[in-house]
Amino acid sequence: MPAAQHDAASPLSRSRVDGARLRLLRRDVRAFGKGFGAEEPAKREKVKRDKAASSGSIPRVDVTVADGGNSSVVMKFNVPSFLVSEYYERSISTFQQAINHFKKTEAPRQLVLDKVPRESIIRKMLDLLCVQLVKTAIKQKDIQAIGEPRLLNPLEEVYSTFAPNEGLTLDIKMDVFPTVKFSKSWRDIKVRVAKPPVPPDAAWNETVKQLKSIHAVPFDYEDGNLLRRAQWGDMVEVELQECYARNETGEVLNETIEMGQDYQKVVSVILEKGWNPMGLCEGLIGIKVGDTRPVNVELPALKPREGFVEDEQQQQEEGKGEGDVKINHDFKDRYEWIEEMGLRATIPVQMILRCVKIRGRKQPEVDDAFMRERTNTTLAEFRSMIDGQVDEELEKRAVKARRGAIQNELSNIADFEIPETMIDRQLVEMFNRRREEEKRREEEKRKEIALETGEEEEEGEEDEVSEDDDPDALMNKFAKFKEEMRPVVVRQVASSLILQTIRESEKIPLDEETIRRQAREAKERAPELDEKILRERLTAMQLHDRVLDFIASTCKVEYYVDERPTRLRVQSGDYSMESVIDTVPGVVPGPGRLRGDIEKQIVKG
């Protein structure tokens, strides 16, 4: 082949020449100790910065960390100029996209600089930059941060001195998870626990008294009871003639109260405390047959149980008349007692009662024959059950008192600060839960009123403006709630942190299966409950009990008898009876109280 054909334009000759030059270049680079493709350090650093900027993260920061007090730290950042420039451009780009939100293209950069205030661009830049700085510092310095970062630099100072091509010094404060320390070992604490002064036979004597009263047999007095005045223990039949309302001061109002469909005109009243509405027995003591007298009474405030009203309406819709409605439920099953602030609500009334008849009541002997007939047990077996109930109740009280004493002692020896973030977060959660509960109660009340009046809310009807619709009113409401509940929340958070610290150091396990089961059962009873919040509460309760019981097994606990009077409730197992015993050392307890249906026989099962 002629040599003229191998000129510079030939592809083959060009590739050979380039290959030879490349080999020579590589040899020269290796000779200088650099390696092919190596870049200058400044250029390599720029490549790293570009990659970091494109991903939105900062690989490393120049930061010093100092104690900020109250379980917080202050991070001092020296931000280089290239980061300031990069995030300044990011801020501008954010406004470019916001201006042309509904268009595919960004707004011109100069338009942003002309139309958007300089302070807004800088503020947006600080928001973007601080998030990445804190995120990198937390990882770099292993900071146990909680809550949101707070910029300490005055914004006016930043605005006045800012330049896109110059570095920045930023101070950012952040709450951190507190470290709990103890002034002495919690294993060395000593606690004194009070026990109630219960006489040995108190519960049994009260139970026998209740049994005799329940199974007393009525009888007619020989004198025909015409001249007899009612005494404690008698059974008095009275006729309700009128019922008037009373106000809060006790003044009788000229307002007649309808007693409802379950009202009986003549009723039997057993004159014993704890059996009847407050004031009824006291008002009937001394009455004679034929007498009529006004009696001031506190009636229980009842409401229909959910579901029963719907059952009645369903039966009526199926073709039965109003008078034919039959639902096989007891009165106590059809209604429930309304509670206000944890107490049973009552309605003050004045009843006009006429005495129809007075009868005595003969109490039986409580012996083995009595117990076999009614409980299928012996007297000794029944007493053993009552004594077991007393022991169980006393143990529950001792455990509760012991846990409280240990918790107080732990608070005395613990040394740490609670960050405001944890307190505010707990307050917000409690406030929101209270609001949801208030809304639920208001909704139930509206439904009750609608059922009573037979009116239904019209669709599209606008509700009245509530506090939740007014931001200022809502903030004022939260401020009052915070002022009221902050001491409670501080104690709760402090206790939780102390117990969590001990649990982690001692590796005390929690029973997750029990928590799941309890949460499932609670959810079945009340489907409206939030499952996450429910499990958090159950976990906190189990943590509280297990850690305090663990500490009780290691520290010194001293029990003593509390000389102050107390009240003890004993419920007789499967029997619908509860004795309330007022106990004083060396003193026989006073009258007790029976809870439940007074006509229910004490029959096992």
UniProtKB/TrEMBL annotation:
Q: What ranges does the record list as Basic and acidic residues composition bias?
A: 317-326, 434-450
**InterPro entries per record:** Trigger_fac_C_sf, Trigger_fac_ribosome-bd_sf, Trigger_fact/SurA_dom_sf
The record's annotation in Gene3D superfamilies points to:
Trigger factor ribosome-binding domain, Trigger factor, C-terminal domain
Q: Name one GO biological process term.
A: protein folding
Region described as Disordered: spans on this chain: 306-326, 434-472
What residues form the membrane-spanning segments? none
Renumbered to this chain, the Acidic residues biased-composition regions fall at 453-472
What is the official name of this protein in its record? Uncharacterized protein
Species:
Vitrella brassicaformis (strain CCMP3155)
**What's the source species' lineage?**
Eukaryota, Sar, Alveolata, Colpodellida, Vitrellaceae
